[in-house]
Specification:
Structural class: mainly beta
Number of helices: 5
Strand order of the largest sheet: 1-2-28-27-26-25
Strand content: 35-45%
Distance between the termini: 27 Å
Helix content: under 10%
Radius of gyration: 23 Å
Shape: globular
Length: 481
């Protein structure tokens, strides 16, 4: 890659940290879209540390009920990144928690009681990291975080799910520990996790959901119901008594590839499943399977939805009458499920944001996961190859980027051959970072606490630099000397 091309790519990436782009005529900048606007983008080069060849994986979120701030928690192949997205157009990268045991492709996060619980797969003795999210309060610049506790009763695990009603975490896919069945952890005291046993009878669970059941089957109401995506079947378990787990039913379906992940509708009537390899194995378009669980003992396949592309589906989550599906190369797809009881047309696509504009091929690139549960309407998407995107439904935030962009600071003169002055009209300058066109940090000034700051350019060669103020807003500086 030439320096000019690298610079253009880098400039687009770093300035996009605070760039709002509306979805107009089916595009938000370079990204295909429908009914969803791009608020901001943060590249993997910012989110992950530089070890290995970083990539993105799972993503989750935390809303601080004390401050009402919203935070994205993005899994990377070598770390977990924390981002303040309260202002979605101007997100603030707060720092990262590094892996316990080297790099891996799969990291999963869930949140309970103001703590993040993090597992990683195929990465040795990683265990479960516990991180107190209240430590993010007041942070405005990049930090290096450490875990507040590490549960060492497991090594590597593919996934974690939490029943927040009960304060119990379920670690799944821990092959080296118990073959991959669910492991029960009491997290009611988050930094003192303790084992409640495990379940091994149905083999490996790749993913799962656990709910306190309040669906139509009166026999099981009030029970803790575990529904596991177990590679070649779905299993439904009553896990209310951790020492006496009961299998309620198992579910099969035609053309099984890899039973990957699914989520209940909010009324607990239907379970929406994604099979990760059916598109590749059978040549079909993106397939989503809907199971009717009105009777948990006798579930049945209610209907099947085929998407517009042949992209592979990954994680999907329900919110009200919408299903948010991460569909690898086809990006985030949003489906209306208000007609889910229909056998012929249970879902209708009502929007999308495609973070992988190159193609919609049947390949494992693009979106890993999406988190749609922020009260504000902010949605975060983690792309394996690019980084984290913040999007919102079109029309729910100003369509004029300049109304949301911080324009309260200036650099003058610019272009310049003398020391320029950075000035801010509102608030104060706390930090200034100067970055070269090749992405190398040249200078970093901390604890400035002033409305004006003079940048000494005597040691800067002629060229273009990027000036980042308060770890948020970026402007270009041209040095002529």
């Amino acid at each position: 890659m030439s320096k000019n091309i690298f610079f253009i790519s880098f400039l687009l990436a770093i300035t996009a940290i605070h760039s709002q782009t509306t979805c107009t005529n089916g595009m938000a900048g370079e990204y295909p879209c429908n009914n969803y606007d791009l608020m901001a983008f943060i590249p993997i080069s910012t989110l992950a540390n530089s070890n290995g060849s970083p990539s993105g994986s799972d993503i989750w979120g935390w809303t601080d009920t004390t401050t009402n701030k919203e935070y994205a928690i993005a899994g990377m192949s070598n770390s977990t990144a924390f981002i303040d997205i309260t202002d979605p157009v101007n997100p603030i990268f707060l720092g990262r928690l590094d892996s316990n045991a080297g790099n891996n492709s799969w990291r999963d996060i869930k949140v309970y009681n103001n703590h993040a619980f993090i597992v990683a797969d195929i990465v040795g003795e990683h265990g479960m990291q516990v991180f107190d999210l209240t430590k993010l309060r007041g942070v405005t610049s990049e930090q290096s975080f450490t875990a507040d506790a590490i549960y060492t009763g497991v090594g590597s695990c593919h996934n974690i799910v939490i029943n927040e009603d009960k304060g119990v975490a379920y670690l799944v896919g821990c092959r080296s520990t118990n073959g991959g069945g669910p492991i029960f952890i009491d997290i009611s005291d988050p930094t003192n996790p303790t084992s409640l046993g495990d379940y091994r009878s149905d083999g490996y669970s790749h993913d799962a959901q656990v709910i306190t059941y309040n669906g139509p089957d009166t026999e099981h109401q009030g029970k803790e119901i575990y529904i596991g995506s177990n590679e070649n079947e779905i299993v439904v378990l009553d896990v209310s008594d951790k020492s006496n787990v009961t299998r309620i039913s198992n579910i099969n379906y035609p053309q099984i590839g890899y039973t990957h992940q699914g989520w209940f509708t909010e009324d607990h009537r239907y379970f929406i499943l994604g099979d990760e390899t059916d598109e590749r194995n059978y040549g079909m378009n993106t397939r989503t399977l809907i199971f009717d669980l009105q009777d948990l003992d006798n579930p049945n396949l209610s209907s099947t939805y085929l998407g517009e592309t042949k992209a592979i589906d990954h994680n999907g989550y329900t919110k009200g009458n919408e299903f948010f599906l991460s569909s690898y190369t086809a990006g985030m797809r949003v489906l209306d499920i208000s007609n889910i009881s229909s056998s012929s047309s249970p879902m209708t696509e009502i929007g999308y944001f495609d973070t992988h504009p190159e193609n919609d091929n049947t390949s494992f690139r693009g979106v890993w996961s999406v988190y749609p549960y922020f009260p504000s309407g902010n949605i975060v998407i983690n792309d394996i190859n690019r980084g984290m995107f913040i999007v919102r439904k079109s029309g729910t935030l100003s369509s004029n980027p300049n109304e949301n962009e911080d324009t309260s600071f200036n650099i003058y003169p610019n272009p310049t051959d003398i020391n320029p002055i950075v000035s801010i009209n509102k608030g104060s300058i706390e930090t200034i970072d100067i970055v070269s066109i090749l992405g190398k940090q040249i200078f970093s000034f901390k604890n400035i606490n002033s409305q004006n700051f003079e940048i000494d350019i005597n040691n800067l060669s002629a060229g273009i630099y990027l000036i980042r103020i308060n770890n948020k807003t970026v402007k270009k500086l041209i040095v002529n000397q």
